[in-house]
Amino acid sequence: MRLDPSGALADVTDRQSGVIGRRQALQLGVRADVIEGLLRTRRWQRLQQGVYATFSGQPGRDAQLWAVILRAGPGAMLSHRTAAGLFGLTDCSGAPVHLIVPPGRRPRPIPGAVVHRLDRPPTARHPVLLPPRTRIEETVLDLAAIAVTADDAISWVFRATGQRLTTPGRIRDALAARGRMPWRTDLAACLDDAADGVRSNLEHRYVWAVERPHQLPRPVRQARIMRDGRIRYLDNFYPEYLTGIELDGRAAHPIGERWRDYQRDNAGVADGILTLRYGWSDVTGQPCRVAAQVVAVLARRGWREPPRRCGSGCALPRPRGP
Fold this sequence. Notes:
42% of the residues lie in helices and 16% in strands. The chain is of the alpha+beta class. The strands form three sheets. Strands 7-8-9-10 form a four-stranded mixed β-sheet, with helices on both faces. The protein has a three-stranded antiparallel β-sheet with strand order 1-3-2.
């Protein structure tokens, strides 16, 4: 029996990675007894209640995602880590499928899925991409909203903007459109820094714990320089003082990576650029000592403005009297 002389069924299943809902099939003219026969002969297979794969092989990830979406019903869209994985923001392979459904709908438990009943406007859904998913800006904010700490929340902003998946301005617009939002103040601050060229939590911490409290001069962020005939980038660069500051959040470096760091720093000495390199423990554990080192180098290279001690225990030297 030819199921679909018009080709409409094939159009739907092609768009949905070979998956179709029972209601869709019935609306396209496939009789209930035909559906049962296809399932009985294993030409089709049941993926979720009332949702079928129109093939007999192992369903892939996209087919599984469509099965969850169709099982959840109209208005459902993939969200949180699942949407993040589809955008390349994180790896979600093998993880539960996260999706948002309108708050008035209470679907029965969906195997392999985490259902979030949230009130989202139609504009929260990406207008083109399939399976249906939240926009990248909404995805970032959804993940930030369930973060346990502020650092975890803002890390999603830096991941998305650092990979050029979106812009600080677009995330800011999405943030402004939300009512209650956890970590709003922290997110707003990190969006300001992201717009200024900050690309990671560690760089953000450097700005707020080292640079601003001690009134250090503002560097060029993500400065593009030519070195050994290749384009390189410095996290922070003072071109007038030929001083760069690299911030590395990796807890440990493989030997090969450490050697590349040394090569870059040594090349900097050869072309006159002195590079100071700090890690997470430096910036978070002893920010005043880091500031003191940066001040000492900049002063030797011509900076004449007075820094500021951030408190009575600050490691910066007290200013000399007249």
